[in-house]
């Protein structure tokens, strides 16, 4: 029997960066907030002295249990979609902090070009630069409109940076803390890329260079460069995450209650309003209705889209007719790059998730695309994130993947190989989208989300162009052997590539173009908000978290406005 609980002002579905920011801002404004998190409670004390690569990096202890819920995948509509049984291409987080616990901490602002990509591309290259199969569109707000929210997120998280990116949008303030250490490796990249005409700068980092107290009074410590960031929680409280910033801020108000092991399976709707959510206690199996004046979907890209679909809210995208917006504009990230093998050894086992040197000369529209068969580009970087022995086995081409020679090269090259890579932008294509699977269900009886995705000609051209440039940098750095990444072929759900999934619940200027407006308020249901990287209409050449954080602060502002006046915010 379903139990109905007392009504609250706001309920969030997920307690990561987005849910934490919404909770903190709304609770500070006096609203009563409940945050429903299907994973467990956890924090800094749980990670102390546990540098366990096998547990966290190989067996994914902080990630979603695919035996309970997964997605189905296919490359195109003619294929049968099958469930993803093991985490591979991307890693879905679960538990307090979500992906904000196991992230690397690389924190960029998307370029002004990203937000007005259709207008700017057509103005410079004409309307036929890409075919009509690519669904590029302006976002519904500009970089300048979002800049104050970027600034707020960076102050909350204490981001460390040098502010030397000449291609970035205008900033109202410098980074809150100085850049991280420029190691010998990074200096080598800086010298080589500068000699080739690029403009390197230190990567903006949520692994802080010094202790910092944010405007809400939360303490963030200084990074120890231990190399256990990605896929790990930080034992020092030095990698900024929701559980050491926005969640404590929300909790201190007395207006926020996080609930764990609470898996939301439906957004409850009555007429043109939502009235709350239905969730299942994953320990006891009990079912609950949590009524709320405002519902905010703050879980990961996949789950936000899925909840709207199973709740029958919005019009599903149909690739045949082009109608509908829910599930449209799914994008991933393209990973061009090259590897270099050197004679000298480096301390590659030391580092931090966002310790890196990068440049944007090949990102956005910062270079001429007139004679190229793609738009946008990639942030190119050398990062020193801390290589680990189980998952790092650098070998030369044509080397067996097991046996004596494999072991010999793995040991030899562990501290003698470096990678220069790009985070390549991904453009939406009419055949890449999210939908509901009509065969498979999760352990709660809810249909699985289905992903239809493959690399496009745009992706392949971008990847080839940037990979060659990465190889040129490694040659300039003095590598004795340079191996450029192979050309893209078909996308595969394995091996790991990036957890930078975007789209499906796109923000837009009009209801005909997207799911939510520029306050992330649902176009059809004004007391429903959907916030996350699903709001991106294209993916940039950067990590998405900084832009997700900025959108979360704008969304929180919208929710507070709505709580006072109601109605559409645009």
UniProtKB/TrEMBL annotation:
<dbReference type="GO" id="GO:0016614">
    <property type="term" value="F:oxidoreductase activity, acting on CH-OH group of donors"/>
</dbReference>
<dbReference type="GO" id="GO:0050660">
    <property type="term" value="F:flavin adenine dinucleotide binding"/>
</dbReference>
<comment type="similarity">
    <text>Belongs to the GMC oxidoreductase family.</text>
</comment>
<keyword id="KW-0285">Flavoprotein</keyword>
<keyword id="KW-0274">FAD</keyword>
<dbReference type="Pfam" id="PF00732">
    <property type="entry name" value="GMC_oxred_N"/>
</dbReference>
<dbReference type="Pfam" id="PF05199">
    <property type="entry name" value="GMC_oxred_C"/>
</dbReference>
<protein>
    <submittedName>
        <fullName>GMC family oxidoreductase</fullName>
    </submittedName>
</protein>
<feature type="region of interest" description="Disordered">
    <location>
        <begin position="160"/>
        <end position="179"/>
    </location>
</feature>
<feature type="domain" description="Glucose-methanol-choline oxidoreductase N-terminal">
    <location>
        <begin position="218"/>
        <end position="327"/>
    </location>
</feature>
<keyword id="KW-0560">Oxidoreductase</keyword>
<dbReference type="InterPro" id="IPR000172">
    <property type="entry name" value="GMC_OxRdtase_N"/>
</dbReference>
<feature type="domain" description="Glucose-methanol-choline oxidoreductase C-terminal">
    <location>
        <begin position="428"/>
        <end position="551"/>
    </location>
</feature>
<dbReference type="InterPro" id="IPR036188">
    <property type="entry name" value="FAD/NAD-bd_sf"/>
</dbReference>
<dbReference type="InterPro" id="IPR007867">
    <property type="entry name" value="GMC_OxRtase_C"/>
</dbReference>
